[in-house]
Amino acid sequence: MGRWSVPPDRSEAGSGSEPGHPSVEASNASSPPKTDFAPGAGSWAAHRIWFQQIAEYISDPVFLKDRHGRFVMANEALKRHFSEQDATDIIGRTDLELHPADIAQQFFREEQSLMASDQAMVGHDEFVYLPGGEKQWLSTTKVPLRDENGAVIGLFGIARDITQRKKSELLREGQSKVLEMIAAGMPLADVLSELLVLIEEQLGGIQASILVLDKDGEHLKLAAAPSLPIALRNQLDGLKVGPQNLCCGAAAFRGETVCVADIAQDPFWEAQCEPALDAGLMACTSMPIKSLKGQVFGTLALYFDQISVPSEIQASLMGETARIAAIAIERELAQEKIRFLAENDTLTGLPNRSQLERRMAELIRSNTATKEKFAVVFVDLDRFKAVNDSLGHSAGDRVLKIMADGLADSVRAEDMVARFGGDEFVIVMKGGVDDPASIRPLLDRVQAEVARPVVFDSQTFEVFSSLGIARYPEDGNDVETLLKHADDAMYEAKSFGRNCYRFYSATLAEQDALKLNLLQDLRTGLRDGQFFLEYQPQFDLKSGQMNGVEALVRWDHPLKGRLLPGNFIAAAEDSGLISELGNWVLQEACRQRCSWDKAASDPVVMSVNVSAQQFFGSGLIDKIKEVLGTTGLPPELLELELTESSLIKDPDQCIETMTRLRDMGVQIALDDFGTGYSSLSALCAFPLNKLKIDRAFVQNMDRGSRELVIARAIVSLGHELGMRVIAEGVETESQMGHLKALDCNDVQGFLTGRPMSGPKLEALLEEQHRIGGFH
Ligand code: C2E
Ligand code: CA
Ligand code: CA
Q1: Distance, CA 671 to ligand 3 centroid (Å)?
Q2: CB-based burial of residue 528 (10 Å sphere; 0-12 exposed, 13-18 middle, 19+ buried)?
Q3: pLDDT number for residue 676
Q4: C-beta of 95 in contact with ligand 1 (< 6 A)
Q5: What are the residues facing 141 on neighbouring strands?
Q6: How many whole angstroms from 717 Cα to the centroid of ligand 1?
């Protein structure tokens, strides 16, 4: 009877009272096990024998335990479970002697409570560790046992090994968790690590890694290897793809699985096997991770703690894992592409506004503590619209791309250039921007780069830029404010005159000071003779003879260099200095015209631009009389160019002044015709000699029939009213052809002559005398 005959502790068992959860240690006696499982009166002995016999037919572990959790009976299957020689070796022992303490105590508590409550526990999932250390999942049923008197004396248990089912359940759960992570856009490294932890848990005795192909297509980057030792990780990171480069390099190279059953003996590993062997990893199998189309994204490798090749199950799990990894990597690549498209300008490839704002926000965050300064520079291309209008949008796009490349080249590596929209760019300059003085050289470089002439379709362009600068943190603490202030400063720069830059300044007083500066500069310029004139020839289309020149003013600014009228005429008008400037131009132009000996007898008219303010200001007539008197220029060789806006300002006074001028013999041309809003019928009231077709119509002639129609209308209108018609801004032979066909009288433009110095124009006149005109 052996241990079965140990007399029961009836007082306790019979009381049916709660045993008070004695600790397992208390019942862990090494000396002859004592059990209170005592089927009395012989009938139990017979039951036990039947029971043992039946139990041996059950393939799942089956056992009986006494009130204190000691095994009193176990079948063969349980013995196998514990790898014991004989099932009787388990008899009399408690879980604490067979399992780790935490698991044993958990069992003890469950059993005591089921016996106390007299309730069965059915199909409960739990796990134990096998002697080899492997985790085994069981579905356990435990039922309290009673003696003849109905008192609980122990329990009956049966446990089914559900490890396989449990593992595949866990695998599915794990895989769907990974897929959810992919769908949620979690970082690729996290997704892949999770995937590898899963395969490592499933297989046991392996360590896994995933390498992904670098952008260069020649190297592998370590993407995840949650368990691999650091030395091996370092060895794998940056591994070159090649037929003999460990397992992964070779698998990526060949596009197929590479198995190395014994690293120590393998020629591919030869000199490089130490990191793996040192970590006790003896074998390696690497499988390429491929897209659905078969493109290799990277490799999945398993490292084994013994010499082996993957079993069928391991190989199939590897395949599953590689497929999920491919989904994750493909998604990451797609996201990268989307991110790039969403954050970069398609035309120039530069970061776009949204990337600019994101990166500025990041910069502000990281600089909040240090208050390290940076500068935001708003760059607006001057007169870019003219490029677009004259060349068409696709050419404009190409010029923009050239500008963008130039800007990117002109800044330092740490700076960022973004396209803000249209012809606006923003540069973020980091470091070395503590004060305006240190930023200036950087700004000069940017402006010089933009101003560099662009040769395009055998034409040369110069584009200038206006820059506005706001600095962090003094001019703004957030993205929006900084951009707005840089933009404000840029507008300030534009109003000061193009091709210059302005720092944002918070107070109006400072802004006024800037305007004052320009005014001061203009005064000094007039006083010190910083202005000079260039002359652009005008030709009669029929005869090919030069019959006029237009005087165009320029400013040699001591600091800003050579400035074009667009930079200062508006400011001169605002400040009232325009009349003074205009008088100087009038004087200088007439003097120059008289100094051209050879043209003395030619009907070459000197055209002078007169702004509305000057025209309506008192003293214009007197000034002209004075100039004609002092220079001796015949009045019919002087022409004033007025814009349409001058006419509509005060038509009556305009007609009066014009009539007086006509009576003096001075000619009058209407400039930029077609861009203003003057009514055509009112036009006949003005004593005009000439209409100048605006550049815009001429430059679009080649492309648009609309412009051609307008030009034709202007020519016939001018002729009907007895005026000459001149086209300005003529740049191509084809424009010239159109104008000839329209019967336009004169042309002026880069095609026939750019604005040039007085002596150069004189040389041109001499040349004309020699050869007799252009054709
Ligand atoms: P505007 O009167 O229409 O002068 C012609 C402008 O067109 C000049 O620009 C000239 O350089 C430019 N141009 C000439 N041919 C071509 C061509 O084939 N293609 C293109 N794209 N442009 C051409 P600039 O010298 O910059 O003068 C700009 C404006 O400044 C003038 O326009 C005129 O309104 C004003 N301006 C120039 N000088 C004076 C002046 O002495 N007094 C006044 N009040 N205004 C002046
Ligand atoms: Ca003009
Ligand atoms: Ca014009």
Answers
A1: 5
A2: exposed
A3: 64
A4: no
A5: 158
A6: 24
96 CA distance to ligand 1 centroid (A)?
Answer: 101
* Structure confidence by residue, pLDDT tens digits, 219-272: 999 999 999 999 999 999 999 999 989 999 999 999 999 999 999 998 888 888
Strand 416-421 and strand 546-557: pairing?
A: unpaired
Residue keyed to tokens 């003074």: 580
Q: Which atom of ligand 1 is nearest to the CA of 672?
A: 3
Q: How far apart are the first and last CA of the chain?
A: 134
733: left (phi over 0), alpha (psi -120 to 50) or beta: alpha
Count the Cβ atoms, other than its own, within 10 Å of residue 381.
21
Among 108-122, 151-165, 560-574, 633-647, the minimum mean pLDDT is found in 560-574
Instruction: Give the per-residue pLDDT at 487.
Output: 93
Which strands sit side by side in the sheet containing 283-290, from one edge to the other? 239-240, 219-224, 206-213, 296-304, 283-290, 258-260
Q: pLDDT per residue over 506-520, tens digit each?
A: 654 455 555 667 888
Q: Which atom of ligand 1 is nearest to the CA of 728?
A: 15
How is residue 547 written in tokens?
């019959």
Question: Cα(755) to centroid of ligand 3, in Å?
Answer: 13
pTM of the entire structure? Answer: 0.46
Residue to mutate, 459, 463, 552, ligand 1, most ligand atoms under 8 Å from C-beta: 552
Statement: residue 36 has pLDDT above 60: no
pLDDT, average across residues 657-673? 94
Backbone angles phi, psi at 110, to 5 degrees: -60, -45
- Is the pLDDT at 469 greater than 80, yes or no? yes
Number of residues assigned to the chain? 775
Question: What residue type is 83 in one-letter code?
Answer: S
CA angle 598, 603, 606 (to 5 degrees): 90
Provide the token pair at 97.
């002697």
Which range has highest mean pLDDT (64-73, 75-84, 333-342)?
64-73
Q: In the predicted model, what is the mean pLDDT of residues 450-455? A: 84
Phi, psi dihedral angles at 158 (to 5 degrees) = -140, 135
Residue 410 has a CB neighbour count (10 Å cut-off) of 20
Per-residue DSSP letters for 96-125?
GGTS-HHHHHHHHHHHHHHHHHT--EEEEE
What percentage of the chain carries pLDDT values higher than 70? 89
Cβ-Cβ contacts under 8 Å for 300 (sequence gap 6 or more): 208, 209, 210, 286, 287, 289, 318, 321, 322, 325
Q: Choose the weakest-confidence range: 121-125, 352-356, 450-454, 749-753.
A: 450-454
Q: How far apart are CA 83 and CA 104, in angstroms?
A: 18
Using alpha carbons only, give the angle 81, 86, 92 rounded to the nearest 5 degrees.
Answer: 85
Residues pairing with 374 in the sheet: 430, 472
Supply 51's token pair. 């029971």
pLDDT at residue number 33:
44
What is the DSSP code string of 186-231? --HHHHHHHHHHHHHHHHSSEEEEEEEE-TTSSEEEEEE-SSS-HH
DSSP 270: G
pLDDT at res. 651: 83
Residue type, 760: K
Structure confidence by residue, pLDDT tens digits, 284-340: 999 999 998 999 999 999 999 999 899 998 899 999 999 999 999 999 998 888 888
Strand order in the sheet with 62-66: 71-74, 62-66, 152-161, 135-146, 121-129
Question: Is 50 exceeded by the pLDDT of residue 22?
Answer: no
Sequence-distant (≥ 6) Cβ neighbours of residue 376 within 8 angstroms = 360, 426, 427, 428, 429, 469, 470, 471, 472, 482, 483, 485, 486
Ligand 1 centroid – CA 386 distance (Å): 13
Neighbour count for residue 320 (Cβ, 10 Å):
13
Q: Is 611 in the pocket of ligand 1 (CB under 6 A)?
A: yes
